[in-house]
Amino acid sequence: MMRIALAAGIALIFATSVYAEDAEVYVDYRQGLMSAVGGNTAASAAILIDGAPFEANLEEHARAIERLTEDIPALFPEGTDHEDSDAKPEVWDDRSTFEERAEASHRAATAFREAVEEGDPAQAMPYFRELGGSCSNCHDDFRVEE
Ligand code: HEC
Predict the structure, then answer these.
(1) Are the CB atoms for 124 and 116 separated by under 8 Å?
(2) Model confidence at 24: pLDDT above 60
(3) How far apart are CA 4 and CA 15, in angstroms?
(4) Are 64 and 40 in contact (CB under 8 A)?
(5) Degrees (nearest 5) of the Cα angle 125, 70, 100?
(6) Cα 111 to averaged position of ligand 1 atoms, centre (Å)
(7) Which sign does the torsion angle of CA 67, 68, 69, 70 carry?
(8) What residues contact residue 90 under an 8 Å CB cut-off, 6+ apart?
(9) How far is the CA of 61 from the centre of ligand 1 (A)?
(10) Judging by beta carbons within 10 Å of its beta carbon (0-12, 13-18, 19+), is residue 134 exposed, middle or buried?
(11) Using CA atoms, how far apart are residues 97 and 15, in angstroms rounded to an integer?
């Protein structure tokens, strides 16, 4: 019993502060995840806007975006502001706004996935635009311009 309590206490310490070496791992992971979201978004755009003949994959792209944007703030714990990262300090200094933008983006991803499931790509278009806007809405304030 005691040992369990101790382990839980240690786990809590690890959960709330991230060592400098681990920060790089977080950066690598979230950049990889964001690239995957970006790839699925670009592929969706090629289908919806440019007419790439891969409508059969659209649902899969939409599902991946929805799933991967489920908890963006978890990718940015305190202490992961690393030199390789393009995240602005505001990610941690204005956390509530960052979390709101993340939630808005995930909601847009869900609405897009639902629209795609309806089966008519033309109907999904406004939801796709809304989703794209939600990415920029966060990047504009929380990501360093390339
Ligand atoms: C709540 C904020 C937020 C939302 C919403 C968000 N992003 Fe990001 N994104 C970031 C931040 C911050 C970074 C920089 C991460 C880093 O370098 O540590 C980033 C980085 C990226 C990158 C660059 C990855 C790399 O290799 O450096 C891509 C691509 C990207 N996002 C695509 C998207 C797309 C597409 C969406 C919408 C579907 C989206 N993001 C939604 C905050 C967000």
Answers:
(1) yes
(2) yes
(3) 16
(4) yes
(5) 85
(6) 19
(7) positive
(8) 97, 98, 141, 142
(9) 16
(10) buried
(11) 22
Q: How many Å lie between the centroid of ligand 1 and the Cα of residue 34? A: 5
What's the pLDDT tens digit per position in 111-145? 999 999 998 888 999 999 999 999 999 999 999 98
Contacts of 66 (CB under 8 A, 6+ apart): 106, 109, 110, 112, 113
The two structure tokens encoding residue 56 = 């059969």
Residue nearest to atom 36 of ligand 1 (CA): 135
* C-alpha 111 chain-centroid distance: 15
How far apart are alpha carbons 83 and 85 in whole angstroms? Answer: 5
Distance CA 58, CA 43 (A): 8
Go through the chain and tell me how many residues it has: 146
Best CA proximity match to 128, nearest among 145, 142, 111: 111
Dmax of the chain from CA atoms? 62
